[in-house]
Amino acid sequence: MKQKKAIVTLLIGQHYQQRWKTICAKNWQQYADKHDYDLVCIDKPLDTSAMAHSRSPAWQKCLILGDERVKGYDKVVWIDSDILINPNSPCIVSNVTEDKVGAVSAFAQFAEPLPGKDQMLIDRIIEFWNWPYRNAKEFYSGALLPDSFDQVVQTGVMVLSPHIHNSILEYTYHHYDETPLNNFEMDALSYELLKANCIHWLDDKFNKIWLACMAMDYPLLLPPKKTEIKPIRFWKRLTRGHYQLPPKKVTTPALNIAFLNNYFLHFAGTSQYMPWVNTNITSWNDI
Question: Any idea where the domains of the chain sit in the sequence?
Answer without folding.
Answer: 5-207
